Amino acid sequence: MGPAAVGERRLFAPDVSISDGRGVCGPLAQVARQLGPCLLGEGAHGRGPGCVPITIKLLDVGEWLSLQVHPESVAARAECAASLEMTEAWVILDADAGSRVIHGLQRELDQAVLRAPDLAHSLGAYARFVAPQRGDVFFVPPGMVHALGPSLLVYEVAQHADVTYRLYDWGRSESLSRPLAIECGLVATDLSAVGGHTSPAPATTGSASMNELLLRSDAYDVRRVRIGDDELRLETGGGCQVITTVSGEVTVRTSCAQRTLGRHASALIPAATSEYRLGGAPGAVALLTIPR
Questions:
Q1: Is residue 124 part of a domain?
Q2: Is 204 within the bounds of a domain?
Q3: Given this model, what pLDDT does residue 49 score?
Q4: In the predicted model, is pLDDT for residue 21 greater than 80?
Q5: Does residue 1 sit within a domain?
Q6: Cα separation of 158 and 160, whole Å?
Q7: Which residues of 52-65 are buried (b: 16+ CB within 10 A; e: fewer)?
Q8: Which residues contact 36 (CB under 8 A, 6 or more apart)?
Q9: I need a surface site. Which of 142, 160, 202, 221 has the fewest CB within 10 A?
Q10: Does some domain include residue 205?
């Protein structure tokens, strides 16, 4: 079996190319170094010039992704001095009937089980399988074993870190780029880790615009906005924000620019933009991620 069948589109990451339409363009980390805190904010800049604190991806999952765990910062430092704590958040944009995710464990998963050749048949007794629905929101803290299953379209937000311990890869051949790390993973696994799973009500179809919090963590907030007959006025609070259209078209308007975003298009609102407005087609829905 070859690599996992997953379509990945990076929306916000150090190597994602950005442009302001006026000549400033290049990889996000490079532009952040050039522009300083006015792009990503004092919080990101204070961690180091060009620091991009989170990544945002769209994942179109065709096969089970690897069963994995991200370590806490203390455990990560013991294994890899360059690593940081990493959390993830998933917003399910679409899910076929029968789709599943693994979101934590029901009971202790020991090394002997992980080394067994028929682990896939044992996971039912150990892993917490959840049937996601469109609009569901999952939070994955450090130490929580997790995996995305097939036939899912997912908006994923994660702290930008460099350690992932793969515990199982569904029979795919191990490689230098996708090694298993069972011993480190067992050390990093926290059986008491509790992640969030909520099922927000569908965005309403009324005439008023809406701006609601889906998830709040120490590293980022994720919000859902719905465009109504009136524009939404938002403030950045001195930090950057990333908006991605989920359905319809959303128009982003600042004091000096305007851009219309189609489905799955994204825009970075710089920290130096004190306020901006969202409008567009009534009923359009977008996700707004705010790094801390």
A1: yes
A2: no
A3: 82
A4: no
A5: no
A6: 6
A7: bbbbbbbbebebbb
A8: 45, 49
A9: 202
A10: no
What stretch of H or E contains 43?
A: helix 42-46
Give the strand pairing for 101-105 and 127-130.
antiparallel
Neighbour tally for 209: CB within 10 Å = 18
| Amino acid at site 37 | P
Question: Which run of H or of E encompasses 119?
Answer: helix 119-126
Residue at which a domain ends, from 173, 198, 223 = 198
Can you give the pTM of this predicted structure?
A: 0.90
Taking residues 255-281, what's their average pLDDT?
94
- 3-class DSSP state of 243: strand
Give the pLDDT band (50/70/90) at residue 77.
very low
Q: What are phi and psi of 126, to 5 degrees?
A: -115, -40
Question: 193 and 220 share a domain?
Answer: no
pLDDT tens digits, 141-175: 988 999 999 999 999 999 877 678 888 888 787 77
What's 27's domain CATH number? 2.60.120.10
Residue where a domain terminates, one of 142, 170, 198: 198
3-state helix, strand, coil in the chain (%, to 5): 15, 40, 45
Question: Regarding predicted confidence, which is higher, 135 or 43?
Answer: 135
Examine the domain organization and report whether 25 and 156 are in the same domain.
yes
180 & 266 share domain: no
Residue 28 is which amino acid? L
Cα separation of 264 and 53, whole Å? Answer: 21
Length of the chain: 292
What total of structural domains would you count in the chain? 2
Q: List the domain range (segments joined by +) for residue 155.
A: 6-198
* Residue 134 and residue 262 share a domain: no
In the structure encoding, which two tokens stand for residue 162, read together? 């460099």
Q: Which residue has the higher pLDDT, 197 or 11?
A: 11
**How many contiguous H segments (helices) and E segments (strands) does the chain have?**
7, 22
